[in-house]
Specification:
Elements: H1 2-32, H2 41-45, E1 48-49, E2 54-55, H3 64-89, H4 102-108, E3 117-119, E4 123-126, E5 129-132, E6 136-143, E7 161-167, E8 176-179, H5 182-194, H6 204-214
Antiparallel strand pairs: 1-2, 3-4, 4-5, 6-7, 7-8
Helix pairs in contact: 1-3, 1-4, 3-4
Organism: Bacillus infantis
Keywords: Membrane, Transmembrane, Transmembrane helix
Protein name: DUF5673 domain-containing protein
Length: 215
């Protein structure tokens, strides 16, 4: 009985994650049309997404990324429901095998988080989630040079810039983006400053660069 309850709780946690993901991406699609940046094709090309190293694309309810999450979350829900029934109603899987609960998380995390950055009048959309200005602690930029972890992963990012936004009250930060040129970085920095998001001091990589130059 307690084991069944445990699996049901894991199922509900997975469902909550899928629902939140779907609601976040819907809100992001609704708001992104009002973004201050990016708005033009050139501005979209000024944002690189680490990992796949693709230029950022608009997010609307007709884009592939939105449809993938929309239908993917539905499919993931039915997969988790089927797996839960398999655990509760059959002996095909031994219910005592607690590690089976991780399958719920594996199915839920199968839907990839979208990567993007939209600067709004009152906050930002970062990787498919809206953060109000009051939720952002600061932002930090780093020059992508030889000793930087992103250097060498994509030629467009080399000697470009890493932009990291820090969210308040979060143990795990939502991630970063790369900006290949100073022009777009300056535009982003100015807009973030205009909506009240402060820039932190120079990063460790900038400090290393200054130290090596001084030597």
């Amino acid at each position: 009985m307690w084991l069944d309850l445990y699996f049901i709780i894991m199922f509900l946690i997975g469902c909550h994650y899928l629902l939140q993901l779907r609601l976040r991406i819907k809100k992001a699609a609704d708001l992104s049309g009002q973004a201050l940046f990016p708005r033009t094709k050139e501005e979209y090309s000024g944002i690189l997404l680490p990992g796949e190293w693709k230029e950022m694309q608009p997010i609307t309810k007709n884009t592939k990324s939105y449809q993938y999450i929309k239908w993917g979350t539905g499919c993931a829900f039915f997969l988790m429901a089927g797996f839960l029934l398999l655990l509760l109603l059959t002996d095909w899987l031994d219910p005592a095998f607690l590690n089976a609960a991780y399958i719920f998380f594996a199915i839920a995390s199968f839907i990839p988080q979208p990567q993007n950055l939209f600067i709004m009048k009152d906050g930002i959309i970062l990787h498919g989630r809206f953060y109000s200005q009051s939720e952002i602690r600061s932002f930090e930029t780093e020059k992508i040079v030889r000793w930087h972890p992103l250097y060498g992963l994509d030629s467009r990012a080399d000697n470009g810039y890493q932009l990291k936004l820090k969210v308040k009250n979060r143990l795990f930060q939502p991630g970063l983006i790369a900006v290949p040129d100073k022009k777009h970085l300056t535009a982003i920095e100015n807009l973030l400053g205009n909506i009240g998001i402060e820039r932190t001091s120079s990063s460790e990589y900038e400090s290393k660069k200054e130290s090596s130059s001084g030597a």
